[in-house]
């Protein structure tokens, strides 16, 4: 069957494709109102440059091919965030900071991840480059929430994490063997109390620190004897303050999965009725070509999960225009907001054209 | 320089990326109002299936890679029209005809064409599958014009051609050696009177047939002694009738380039101020998996050419919100349609954030 698509690829058909496009418009439209202008990075780049800006796991999953023009290897982007960082660091390197950019487009992965079987995904989001302050992070989280609300997503909740938590503690008040940091992080992420105790008993309270935001924040404050986490905890509190009552808030300070390249803040976004997370973000660092580092914060949304949950659905009222109708009348109905579907031959019917209404005697009649 | 992109690839930056997205929304929004719902075909397919539906020249230019999952060769689409045909023939094969679909998305080519140096293009358009009647073709041309008008494109002109003209004449009233048809078509396309005369003197009047629509149509009617072109000429006249006074119309019956897979009708779209054509379309045939053929008609637009000509430009009024402003005030300004850009640190200025207005004492003041 030549109609079958490779595993992990699919066509979006009506009405899903329209719903997806409207979700993108709503999300990027809301971001645009906050000053985030759109960038559309190239779909393919030199593999060497792209790989240098990606986590190694992501770089390995890029589709590669040899370019007959340059005789070099090109890669199709497996992620857009890293491309936005490249643009901010190069062509927009002279632009005053912070730079606010939004994006939406397909990304391609040679292998599916464990979490999702898709190999082509529509990624959309915003990045604020040049700052990763509490104010910058609060703006990014706020824009993500507003963008989702604009797209009709309700009952949003945000789960915060502190990606560099273990590193900060291990290099400060609770020293452990540096070779053990990764293992400890893993066991904390898995909430494996026995495993944590085996490596460093002092970290045990972190196993129980996750939960509803305020209570978890209090537990973490109580744990933070040495004050090494004070700025992070104050920052988290300030960010949460601006969202209280509007979205559900939780804190899972040792959640690590997928936040490998985030610095002090990470967050996952959920919505009722949607399985799994619908987006994520956090603070991170972009590297300029001269090696200089620059702080950034951003979020990405996964459009397909949101649309699959029935959000962003479109109105499919369609008005059937019989053969011989004055074109000016159909145009007037479109100007009034109708979708018109013209009969093009004698046998055509409203039913065949999935129409809900019929244009008769100058009026739209429900069928 | 890792920031350089491969030849033929580029990033769209602000404000070009936003202008491009708005052009897409306007074009597909206008088409949606005529009943064209969106399909988003997969970016990659099995190479074998994709190549079978493309002109061989296009298939050769597809980026290919080996899929580690299926162990088969996949190709990134170099064209979306063929994918829309696949969808109409397979997953939407049971859908009553005609099927109306729209699309917009990137296509990738391993080699640039002679006409354009780009290897990544944004292709958008509409296809009407199941009919290629005069009424169907008139609808498609009309939707193309309306979509471009909705996007702010002015002074549109359409150049019609009859892609199968030479074949029809050669197999009818003006027989020539079948082996000579391609050569004759080429020389007619090049308006090479000497070359045409060498092959078949009877075709010479066609060299002079191109020009403003009505005059060219009259010359072609006078030439059509045998009546072999009557249905085509009547159809062309009916299509043009619906567009008169609204767009410029020309007829170049032997124009062939790029219309190799069109059947009786082809057209190119131009706009004043835009170099080269901004779109094209025509009637063609899609092939089902059982070998059955189905008529179709459609158009594609080239977004980048349109945006490069300054069309679809966006309003960049930006309101600077000083540090410490009540967030509710900024939200009220956004609700009133403003783009707000919040200061996130003390040193930030309206100038640095490319703002045109400043929020002061509850008002937007022009800077």
Automatic annotation (TrEMBL), chains A, B:
Residues binding L-histidine, per UniProt: 79-81, 109, 123, 127
GO MF, one annotated term: glycosyltransferase activity
The entry's keywords: Glycosyltransferase, Transferase
GO biological process, one term: histidyl-tRNA aminoacylation
Matching Gene3D superfamilies: Bira Bifunctional Protein, Domain 2
Pfam families: tRNA-synt_His
Tagged with keyword tRNA processing: no
Residue ranges constituting the Class II Histidinyl-tRNA synthetase (HisRS)-like catalytic core domain according to the UniProt record: 8-306
Keyword hit for Coiled coil: no
InterPro entries: aa-tRNA-synth_II/BPL/LPL (IPR045864), HisRS-like_core (IPR041715), HisRS/HisZ (IPR004516)
One GO cellular component term: cytoplasm
PANTHER family given in the database record: HISTIDINE--TRNA LIGASE, MITOCHONDRIAL-RELATED, HISTIDYL-TRNA SYNTHETASE
Name the record gives this protein: ATP phosphoribosyltransferase regulatory subunit
